[in-house]
Write a structure and sequence with these properties.
Elements (H helix, E strand, L loop, with lengths): L1 H4 L1 H13 L3 H7 L12 H11 L1 H10 L8 H7 L11 H11 L4 H4 E4 L5 E2 L3 E8 L4 E7 L3 H19 L3 H5 L2 H15 L2 H14 L11 E2 L12 E5 L3 E3 L13 H23 L1 E3 L7 E4 L4 E3 L5 E3 L2 H15 L3 H11 L2 E2 L4 H13 L11 H14 L2 E2 L2 H20 L5 H5 L3 H10 L3 H31 L12 H34 L3 H28 L5
Parallel strand pairs: 5-10
Antiparallel strand pairs: 1-3, 2-3, 3-4, 4-6, 7-9, 8-11, 9-10, 12-13
Length: 548
């Protein structure tokens, strides 16, 4: 039944794709091979997503966070995708709002502005005032968007299952990417989840040793009014950071104020990424507001990322390896970070890093874009068939957006310059944690456990060695080919020895034989030896391995 309902949508998608000249699809329809499909050009792919509508724009935005899957040209083009949809009429939005409220709308709000202040593919935002006078922002889900998303994600998963049967689909786990996209979209439909993200980020940013938490604002959630389709947040009065006017106040010049704000944002995100492990993953310029009281607000916490402690440690060391231009260490850290790593040639991986980092030799940190370098790290991993966790793409995109937004706001700033003074503190925190005594005691317990278990493990190993029950399983690449070559060589050597023995035997018989019978036997042996020797020479010549 559901498949029947999506037939018209399938027809629309096919029409858009074919109209934009996707040669792969045309080839597939005319009997071409699907084993090595080619993507359309970046500009064409972006146009396809735009014409297919909001869900596919979201898909393009997700793909723009995966430089481990797509080349830089695609990432750059897809990064410009923005949901541009007309707002829903107030009459339709009001129906959803009344359905979500537990009380009549007139008893909850003293005023609701019917004109939206922002409209997206999932929801639109209206300004309102509670009965007690507090101003709030209402994020209200577009009516029927859940049905549209269910239909389109069903089709996307079906297409992913087809592509998954090809080599490229298995190499890049296209089915896993489709599942990740479906989950991300469904999460966006649950505003309670977004509210919990907002609350957690607000709590994490309330304390810091690197910046003044009073200067950074994340809106408060009104939980008593928030539902799956309605998010009610504190209203923050200000303007987008990029268009804000800064005048000289308290002896601080506009340029100095910009530098202070940039350092504040950098340090807040460094804490999110490398300390908290929970970060706002969409720091584009529109999500930073400069408030009338001089503080900075971080808005729209619907897209977040997570980093486990191990990934945080590796990424922190990766920053140091990039600063030190250490290609060997970059290689080791990439392999540690990988979900699956089977590079065809480990030396090639290190050479690729060496070649990439060589471009930045003799450059000051202020001239190096960390986001650009890390994108290149991910691309090198992709080219060497190393699959990294999906959150690495989101991490890279977050850093790129943060660095890009900051450089628009303050062109002289550089992320690596801001991270460098914090490196010692970062390593100390990762080594000792927030509670050094607790970390020391835990390490002592680990050492005690190791000291108690080691003698027993050594005893077991020695028992297995002396009882000849220890087996070694070695896997050597291309060993089968080497074994076959050795077998052929051994067979030819044995064959040569047999031929030589026949010739020697025939010679002995010929020299000592006086009768005609011995003469016949000698000639027969010489004939057989000559034939076998000629066959061996022809075999060697045909193998092409006579040349040195």
């Amino acid at each position: 039944m559901f498949l029947t309902q999506t037939v018209s949508r399938q027809r629309d998608i096919a029409e858009v794709v074919l109209r934009n000249g996707w040669g792969y699809m045309r080839g597939l329809l005319t009997g071409g091979s699907a084993e090595n499909p080619q993507l359309p050009t970046p500009a064409v792919l972006r146009k396809i997503f735009i014409e297919l509508g909001p869900v596919y724009v979201k898909l393009g935005q997700l793909l723009s966070t995966r430089p481990d899957l797509l080349p830089a040209s695609y990432i750059e083009e897809l990064s410009t995708l923005q949901s541009s949809v007309p707002p829903v009429s107030w009459q339709d939005i009001e129906v959803v709002l009344r359905q979500e409220l537990k009380q009549p709308l007139e008893e909850v709000f003293g005023f609701v502005n019917p004109q939206p202040i922002a409209a997206g593919s999932i929801a639109q935002t209206h300004r309102a005032k509670l009965m007690d006078g507090r101003e709030v922002a209402l994020k209200i889900q577009r009516p029927g968007i859940d049905v549209i998303i269910e239909q389109d994600t069903f089709l996307i998963r079906g297409l992913a299952e087809l592509v998954d049967r090809t080599e490229i689909g298995q190499t890049y786990d296209i089915k896993g990417l489709a599942d990740e996209f479906t989950k991300a979209l469904r999460d966006e439909l649950d505003f309670i989840l977004e509210a919990s993200y907002t609350k957690l980020l607000r709590e994490n940013m309330s304390t810091s040793r690197w910046f003044d938490p009073q200067q950074l604002v994340i809106p408060e959630v009104y939980w008593d009014l928030t539902t799956r389709k309605l998010l009610v947040l504190e209203w923050l009065d200000g303007e987008p950071l990029l268009t804000a006017n800064f005048s000289q106040t308290n002896g601080v010049s506009p340029q100095e104020k910009r530098r202070e704000i940039t350092r504040l944002l950098f340090r807040a995100f460094i804490q999110q990424l490398y300390v908290d492990g929970f970060f706002h993953a969409d720091p584009h310029p529109g999500n930073f507001f400069y408030l009338k009281d001089g503080r900075v607000a971080l808005l729209d916490c619907g897209l977040v990322g997570r980093l486990d402690p191990r990934s945080q440690r590796i990424l922190t060391e990766m920053i140091l390896a990039i600063v030190d231009m250490d290609a060997q260490r970059c290689t080791q850290l990439t392999l540690q970070l990988a979900d699956s790593a089977n590079p065809d040639n480990l030396a090639n991986l290190e050479v690729s890093y060496e070649r990439m980092l060589r471009k930045y030799y003799n450059l000051s940190l202020s001239k190096i874009s960390f986001a650009k370098v890390f994108y290149e790290v991910l691309q090198i991993a992709r080219e060497n068939k190393i699959r990294l966790p999906s959150n690495m793409g989101l991490y890279a995109k977050t850093v790129a957006n943060l660095e890009g937004s900051a450089r628009i706001f303050d062109p002289e700033v550089n992320l690596l310059d801001e991270i460098k003074p914090l490196m010692t503190d970062l390593f100390q925190r990762q080594l000792l944690g927030d509670n050094p005594l607790q970390t020391l005691l835990r390490t002592a317990l680990d050492v005690k456990s190791l000291s108690l278990e080691s003698p027993r493990q050594i005893e077991l190993l020695l028992d297995r060695v002396t009882s000849e029950s220890l087996k070694w399983n070695l896997a050597i690449k291309d060993f089968d080919g080497l074994r076959r070559s050795l077998d052929v060589s051994a067979n030819r050597l044995s064959f040569s020895i047999v031929v030589g023995s026949l010739i020697i035997g025939a010679a002995i018989i010929s020299s000592q034989g006086q009768t005609s019978q011995f003469s016949v036997l000698s000639n027969a042996l010489f004939g057989v030896a000559s034939f076998l020797g000629l066959w061996l020479i022809i075999s060697i010549l045909r193998s092409g391995r006579l040349r040195s």
